[in-house]
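Incident log entry.

Two folding requests arrived from the same account within the same minute. Monitoring flagged them as a possible duplicate submission, but the sequences differ. Recording both here for audit purposes.

Request one:
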Amino acid sequence: MNKINICFATDNNYAKYMGLALMSILKSANKEDNFHFFILDNQIKQEEKDKIATLQKIKPFEITYIPINNGMFKDCRFREGKITVTTYARFLVPQLINEDKLIYLDCDIFVRKSLAPLFNLDISDYFMAGAVDFAIKKSYLVSKFNENILPANYLNAGVLLINNKKWREESIANALFEYASLHSRGLHYADQDCLNYLLHSKVLKVNPTWNMRNHCYDPYLVNKQLNKKEIIEAQKDPAIRHFKPWRQNNISEFREEYIEMMRTSPWAEFTPKDNLSLPNFLKILYKYWLRYPAFFLTPKFYIRVKHLGFKNTILRVID
């Protein structure tokens, strides 16, 4: 059996999406995959835990709920309305979970292949492994970190293979909390910025197939990447799709697969009901214009329209 340790962190509001992510892992697993899920539990209700337990019929698994609370993060000054204690929970993973390594996942992911190849990567010399977040702007990194982080080495924190053992040996959690307590309010990407700033010298970059965000399907952004061919190849059959498919009228790749799974899940009642009638589309277009008032003057808009079509360009969510 191939034991795979996986960690999520969520409150009750996102528990259903975590459950759907967990369901996708089970449905995509190989026969020999053996899962232990560790859930950093920010007041998840028993009703949601009971629904998650019904997923045992897909494939048996172990699950451990680890309570987290505000007191654990008293030194982190969260930005109002944006950052919650759950955001910083991954800092505590090596202290709360006695495993040498694990995969940390955000709740807004859809797993389509076995996670064994990712989990089995040798990261003994690295703090963590993950996919590059190529949507990050160099100007932002320079403004926050001078030249200390290059965009090519900045990882997205939604899918990480974490070397718990190395974190514990080098007291990484303490360093992360210390940095966050001093800088968190000034960092747009909060925990992700902290992780990249402190650990960027010892990270392993993985194939983008393990974290295909909406940016990875944006022709304007993809065309600017040195590893364009690798991204385009991953677009066809990603191992992990990282997006929010439950949003109404969210047109994005592999959403229908997710929605089909959602309809058969314990959370079927939350399946979105899209409304793409002409009057509603015009309302969406109006909101798009309010958000991007000069969109029709930008070259990137026409590049997207060329590859995606006008309607899909408007409806897509570029996170």
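Request two (distinct sequence, not a duplicate):
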Amino acid sequence: MLSETELIEIENAAVELARGAGEILLKYFEGPLTIDYKSANNRNPVTDADHASDDYLHSEIAKRFPAHGIVSEETDPADESATDIVWVIDPLDGTSNFLNGLPMFGALIAVLEHGRPVVGAIWIPDISTPLGRVLHARAGGGAFDEDTQLHIAHELGGKRPMSTWPSYFLRMFTFDKSLRRRLGDVRALGSAGFELAQAARGVLDYVVYNGLWAWDISAGLLLIQEAGGVALQYDKSSKRWSPFQRISPDGSNRPPTRGEVNNWHGTLVLGRRSAVEFIAAGIGIPAFRWRRFKARASKLTKRS
């Protein structure tokens, strides 16, 4: 179990590294970029800015904390061994925004202990600060926007809620009648890290994700929790929402392997307690039985 002194040391390092990654991204922003695509049809772009930030973070973490593991969106884990402490990084979250000149992106750093986020840092650009800002938190130590502590009120206070959802969210979720016309002002900003940072600041009242990866969610999740918000995760087997516990493939307390962290993804609602509880009570995940039937039929046809 990490001590308070160790957590403070790791948090300070995460803040410094997030700021360093942000400086790298700003040097590439609006400049010429080399772009590759990880998926067909020009989906999942990756740029030399991603790689430069990733190389910097890998090098610094390995130098400062050689006993810790590293999982990154841009690089597969070197081995499948389990490590008590794992750094989970997204060197450039919101790549599509970035390469199109939209200043909604970020560098995300989280540290997991036995799969539980214990340190988080998010660098994001900011119109009032040329070098951007870093939001950060450690377990039990509160959440901060630079040096200002963050507090999320439990209730909306009478205002119309503002939220972010995935694109095509109407296809991803089932909705109870109680939610009709009560979702508030819905946005999709193109960067989970940017959205989670705004939820931790109280700008967004809640955020909803389906199938988000560990490097997207971990840092912002801790920020929201430490600021007084909540995070509920959907369990597909029980079809219920419950408080998020840890990045784990089987729900156990054992340290996940780096490969398991790399492959984990979940469905969550995060933010202001009253908004999160209201929304989670009225949404579910469709079964997609017809889609699964078509996939199985296609496999059988190919085999025959």
